[in-house]
């Protein structure tokens, strides 16, 4: 008969192999965050630029099935629970969707070749220019 320690080890190993253990840990972190989140503390107003950036991040998280991370982003950022319409988001970000890759938005100028590395430098100034975002001096620290 197996000991409790052996059963724990087998259960942990099985959950890890199925990817469930990471999901359980992420869910616990999200629930702890939600329990500790102080709803009485007012959040800063969500700017248009941050709304769009957060939505792009949420799309990335959902595409990669990081649903608990996405739920924390939504709760912490004040992003609306309902995602923005994809066509609206694509238009606002000057994005062209490839018909064969409708599951993920592809930005013009942001391509990742076989090497997995961007062909263009993804520095702050480049991103601000590509996304038509004007940075003020107070935003430089972000």
The major beta sheet can be summarized as: none
Output the structural class: mainly alpha
Give a count of the beta strands, DSSP E runs of length 2 or more. 0
The ordered H/E elements are HHHHHH
Helix run count: 6
Globally, the shape reads elongated
Q: Between the first and last Cα atoms, what is the distance in angstroms? A: 57 Å
Q: What is the rounded Rg?
A: 20 Å
Summarize the amount of helix as a percent range: 40-55%
SS strand fraction: under 5%
Low-confidence stretches: 107-114
Mean pLDDT: 76
Explain how this protein is built.
Keywords: Cell projection, Cilium biogenesis/degradation, Cytoplasm, Cytoskeleton. Involved in the biogenesis of cilia. Required for the recruitment of PLK1 to centrosomes and S phase progression. It holds the Pfam family FOP_dimer. Belongs to the CEP43 family. There is one protein chain. The chain is mainly alpha-helical and 142 residues long. It has a domain of 36 residues. The chain is built from six helices and no strands. The protein is elongated and about 65 Å long. About 6% of the residues have low confidence.
